[in-house]
Predict the structure.
Amino acid sequence: MTLSLSLDQVEDIARQCLVACGASGAQAAAVARSIRDAEAEGTRGIGLEYLQWYCGHLRVGKIAGHAEPVLSQPAPGSLLVDAADGFAHPAYEAGEAALIEAAQRQGIAALGITNAYACGVLGYFTARLARQGLVALMFANASSTMAPWGGRKAFFGTNPWSMAAPRAGAPLILDASSSATAYVNLANAAARNDPIPPHWALDAEGQPTTDPHEALKGTIAPAGGHKGSALALMVELLAAGLTGANWSHKASSLGDDLGGPPRLGQTIIAIQPGDAGFAARIEGLLEDMQDEPSVRVPGDRRHANRRQAEAEGVLVDDVLMGQLRTLGGNV
């Protein structure tokens, strides 16, 4: 049996669950907005399904539920938010207006977030800036789940990155990780005893595996082999190196209840296009790219999902509904 929830209901339930598990109203509201966005765009793994991770880590103290982000501006184009061991989402919101103002005033600006929990879908943040007419880049590190190329010991996180740019309508969004998949996808496959694609992960001996349980004993594979490993290093330097956050291999695991706050980092760069016709030029580029009918523009599927979700809501099955009720959602 399934139930249809409007996006307003998704946001309300997410906020209720987070508050019930120890988050302040401000922390919960910012995260709930991101969960609404993930559900709208069809990314349930970091939407309602991820609430069990957020809530579990609130309860054991990996996330400081009543943290209050602190914004500083070390230089005219450089901003820093200390998340104070709380969620990354309210920390970003604490610095967003200043980031937009600085980028519009001088052409480019950067916002670093330090001492934060993982931030979920990076495209959520870059798209917000693209809707303000900015080109945005974002980099985030995560606790170690991926070995460097040639190794067998987890060192890097999935270390995602995103780029978004304004278009005539909904923004162009590129959103990817340095790894072949996200940790939550392995955990969900293991919970369901579903096989995984052989390129997703390596077992403890460093060999490709289709068994998610063996994958969880080993490491996630880098995307594109040595290229994904190099990309993870770049993200690590930009996300944790520039912000003073923990390196991935020094952060507590996002996959268990041990070790206290991970104190991860995120860096967002916002650029004001100098050309007033920039969005139109992007549109022309994408039209040329789609001369072949099979070519898909990154982000278009999430925009289509959003239009459908806004009109029809999202479907939630009995299992997930039961989890939400247990977490404190008034469903």
DSSP finds eleven helices and eleven strands in the chain. The longest strand covers residues 108-116.
